[in-house]
Structures are given as structure tokens and as C-alpha cells.
């Protein structure tokens, strides 16, 4: 009711008044309809016409979202400002409509202008009031969007990315130290929608050459301060607009040497932007990612990726990812570097704060509650902090590993892998329907993957809910987060249990993506997403049954059979989501079931070699060799069509209808 009569009705009334004014001014029924449709089209496609600021698009606003966890959150303030501004404009338009209202048989333009001039004396005060309201509201919005914050159109943002690449792209291959340890003190203030982060990085030169400067990439215009090092440095560059800094070392960092960097970051909303309000820190459901913190070196993801945009900016063509046969790119492992992590997170007394690692202790100081986390095994540099009024469900999973797996931890420093793993589900108290399903899926997935691909290297596994309408999940080391849309999925009895499969897929990323981190080249998605999807299919088959697996394959086939271009890249060189999430798993399922039929002892049965229980894995694609081992013709055809260009039409004859596999020896 709040949305219908409070938000949507406002939009309807504003547009209805615009249409009324158009009909009064045009005074021709069908021409008025045509002009009204034209005005609606201009509003709807204003962005395509180059108009993006909501101050210039009638009745527009930055948008809003509602969730059970945070309510309307910080989004109502900018919405109210813009609606008040456009209501003032509507008031002014109503005055204009009154001035030109037809009240006689003489409807010529000179006559209407005379009547408008005569009526203006009676409505001068209303017109002046409307004009003052428009200027006052517009000035307030402009102050928030263009003074407190920097307004940037899509063209401006493209230009900034192009400038970033032109100015600092030469530093992409510059030697940089590796991040080996992160220590953070995080203070979250949900009621103030702010957070203070003070931290330190331990950097080690693992290259073969001395390093004479340290490069940092930060979010443009981020409030970052107190950057210092434990050795003498000289600031050489501080580009706040593009977010790039260079610090020169007075004494070079020799191979094997280390340096400690300290910094402070302030996350706080400065009013609102043309795109709305910042929602990282909210009253209930804070979600702060590591993207807010400084990144060591040149940030590749800021480059323009679209070929047409690069051409317009005068940049040379660039592949979305380096070639599979680029030897240097295959040896690059920056994205897979591991580090130790420790953090103390403070929040309000009624909330629970969560970070990577084991919870060492928790305490209360005044109206603040603190949590101390530390990892027991290294993790990749991608993590998040959460704070909300959570309910918690705990369960245990006890590994059943053979002696060789227990003796060889998959990540250096992981220690023993035979200890029980604590599964924790942090969820909104009103969203408890899928919690038991999530626990069962996590337990079954951890059991299957640890048996088939190697041990789970951590002693904790956490799943956390955060505000948002999305139905998917996102995996990080020992952590999975999901939005509220996932909580509200309600599979019907006897139907497809999609929440169970999604959880199994994300748990698989603790192996595919974190323990096995492929090089950032073409086809990396095959080793991360395709194998995770196929692994989840195996868990679903073992726990929910073969018929349930067929339901999932049937749903996946609906998208797979949508007509598309006949030209397709080889699967092992694919970069798009369809190839990674649909074609890759379907090929794996066809190959895997054939392998089981011929009695393969390969547990996962797919085209890729299982993860050895030894870390680190070589950061390169390893599927091709295992695909081309001597096998029967049917399996060889399946695998080779995965790694060679084939038109889509050639594979339509082979639907995803695998016959039920017979048990393989040793399973």
C-alpha cells in the first residue's frame, strides 16, 4: 500500500498533470495525444538522448528499493527531494494551464495570450510561489549532486576510465610487492550510515628485481588518509580524480624484503548523488567489500572493455581476456595470491558483525559490540564485512577423509583438515524458510567435494543474508552471501529445488576458484563456473535423486536451446556467461556420464582433472590434456567439440538427456 499509494501514485499524478497541461496548450484532442506520447518517449529514452541528470527529466528520480532488512533505507531522502522538486514544477505547470484555459469560442493564439495576460494578475502570487519552490528545491538537489558529490555522466565515466588507462596503463607490468597480511580495525556506525577503517598491509617483494616505488589504486574521491610506510618514502603522485597514487622508496625494496603500509578510510554518505544514496552502510544490513580499501598496483578492471567505446576513445583494441596461448598471462598469478587476515569489527550493541576467519573473542564496550576475527589459513584478497540484527543457525560437518587427504592440506598453513567444520547461517529472523535447506545442501556439498576434490581448508563455513532483491549468491573464502530474493524462493513439493542447487554451486567455489585459481585468460570461466555447476549437479543427484537432476537439466536446456549466432568460440576459450553457465556444464554432464558408463575411476567424471590436495595449483588451464586422452569415439567427440569452434546447430541433435549412469568402480 505504501508503494502503490505513496510512491507510484505520485508518479501517476505528476504525469497526468503534464498531459493535462499539454492538452490545454494544444487544444486539439488527437494532436494532444500525439504530443503526450512524444513527451512520454522523451522521458523514457532521455538517457539515449544524452540527458541523464534527473533535474532535467520530468518526474524522474534516482530510484528506490525496499527490503525487509533495511526497509527503504537511505533511498527515500533523494526520492523525496526530487519528487518535491517536480511537484513544484507541476504546481507551476498547473498555473500555466490555468492561464491558458479555454473559456470562450475564440481559440486563436492571440486571443489566448490576451486572456493569459489578463489572468496573470490574479495568479501572480501562485506563480511566484511555484517559481521559488522550483528554484529552492532544484538548488538543494544541485548542491547534493554537483557540489557535495561530483556529477559524472556515462560519457564522463567512460572518459575517466580511458584516461586511467592512458595515464597509468604503462604501470600494469611494473613490479609490485605481494600482499601477505592484512590487519584491520573496522568501526561501523549503522545509524549514522558511516564506517571508519584503519588498517595495515604487510607487503613482500616476491619478484626477482628490486622495487623503487609502490603504486596504489583507490576509489576516485574516496576519503582516504594517513597513508604511511615503515620506511622512508616520498609521495610522487596523488591523483584523487582517477584514484591513483605513487610513493617512491628512498631505499629500494630488494627481493625478499618487506614493508608495512598503514592507512585510514572513511566511508560516509555526503548527501546523495544523481544515482541515489550510498547503501554500503545502512541501519540494518551493512555490507562493506574489500573494494573500498587500497589496491596494490594498477587496477585492470577499470579499463574500458567494449570494443566500440575503446575505438571512440582512441584506445587500441584489446581482448576481454588475454589469449589462452599467452604464456606470460598464463603465468600471472596476482589475482590468486594468498594472505593472512585479522580484523576487529565494532558495531552497535544489538547487531552481529561478521568478517572472514575464526571468531577469537567478542566483548562489549559501552553501547558498542566488538568481534575479533582471524583466519587460520590464508585467503585470497577478496572479502566483505557484514553487520545486521541477525538470527543464527549453527550446524556441524565432520570430514571423513582418507589418510592421504588428511596429511596434505590444500592450502599452505591450513593445518589439520580432520577437525569438524562449523556451519553458520546468519539470516533475517523473518526469512527462516530456506535455512534448513541451506544447511543440508552445505553439509552434502562439503562432504562430496572434500571426498572428490580434496579437503576443505577452513574450520568455519558461513552463509550471510544481506539486503537486496537478488536470488543468487556470491562466494568468498569460507563465506557465501545472498540477497533477500533467495530467502523468499519457495520450491513447490516435487518440483525443482533451486535454492538447494544454488547453495551447492556456491560451495563448490571453495574449490573451483579459491583452491584452484586459473589464470585470468580465455576460458578461465570453464574452470570456475562450469565445473562448479557440474559439481553441484553431482551433489543434487546424490542427495535428491536422479529425477531431480533431470528437472534441473530441463530448466537449463530451455536457455541452452534459444537460437543464437551459429558462430561460437571454442568452449575452452569462451568468456561469456552463457558458455560458462550453460554450455560448459552441459558438455561436462555429457562427458561425465559417458565416462561413468565406460567404468572410469575419475570421481567427478568431467573433462577436467580433479584438484590435487596440494596447493598452490598451477595458474593455467588444465582441461585440454585430460579431454584428449584415448577414449571411445562418443566421448572423444563430446570433448573435442567443447574445445573447437562448432556452430550451435550441430549440437541440437544431442539434447541434454543423459541416460541414468551405472555405478563406477570405486564409488
TrEMBL record:
Protein name in the entry: M1 family metallopeptidase
Lineage top rank: taxon: Bacteria
Transmembrane segments: 6-26, 38-59, 79-102, 123-143
InterPro entries: Peptidase_M4/M1_CTD_sf
Keywords linked to the UniProt accession: Membrane, Plasmid, Transmembrane, Transmembrane helix
Keyword Transmembrane set for record: yes
Segments of this protein annotated with the region Disordered: 644-667
